[in-house]
Amino acid sequence: MLRIHLTEADVARTRLAGVPDPAWEVPLSRRILHSEHAAPVFGAWRSQVRRAPSLDSYFDVALAPHWHTICAHVAVEHRVRAGKPFSVTHPALRWTPLGLDVVGPAEQDVRLDGRGLTLAPSFFCWGAPVYFMELRVLAFPIDHAPGWADNSAAEPSEQSLTTLLGRTRAAVLGAIRAQPHITTTELARRLGISAAGASQHAAVLRESGLITTVRLAGVAIHALAPRGRALLGQPRLCTTIVHSLAAGETTPFHHSVTHA
């Protein structure tokens, strides 16, 4: 049992992460990559990145093509919980008057010394929560949209590019750039058009490979695809991964609970 003790100062600084972070998604994804668990959820992704290169380029190969999808899943979890860290539940977690107990094979007490705890909805955390000592982060599993790997990494269609001319679609593309992970309803409100119209314009942009869309809990969430960023003159997303992750210096606390 891992016992995370929370003082009043810790409680005041405890938060629910609203965005994913490579600091935990990278090591957790590498665990998934080298296991055969969760094939229905991660099988297609594993087949795409099975021969991923060194850590220097791992993020660009394994996670970057799906980063919008990952962000959207985490954002939905954050919204569902209204940003409240103490709403997090899992069979391996138990809130107590002293803090948070995490089921696991080892007996260990963790004191945060008033620095607080981050509870992180994690795309690549599977089965049981994982605690990262150095980061003071407890990653916990979230639900996944069916076929997420195929949908988020699909090759764009060239055929629809000629349909993009027009003021409204240009405005739609600009709105998605201005507000990443915008919903169709928010898009319609921002541009003063109907939700049906916003959905139709987004569909054309998506078919042209300019945006990506993830649908979770009945809500469509849009973001720019690499082609859309290039069209609007945005620089390519660059992400640096800390080398200590490769050496295991950021070591997760492993738990015995497995996914049913």
TrEMBL record:
Pfam families: MarR_2. Residues 159-237 form the HTH arsR-type domain. InterPro entries: ArsR-like_HTH, HTH_ArsR_DNA-bd_dom, HTH_MarR-typ, Metal_resp_trans_reg, WH-like_DNA-bd_sf, WH_DNA-bd_sf. The keyword NAD does not apply. CDD domains: HTH_ARSR. GO terms for molecular function: DNA binding; DNA-binding transcription factor activity. Keywords: DNA-binding, Transcription, Transcription regulation. PANTHER family: ARSENICAL RESISTANCE OPERON REPRESSOR ARSR-RELATED, HTH-TYPE TRANSCRIPTIONAL REGULATOR KMTR. This is DNA-binding transcriptional regulator, ArsR family. It comes from Lentzea xinjiangensis. The lineage of its organism: Bacteria, Bacillati, Actinomycetota, Actinomycetes, Pseudonocardiales.
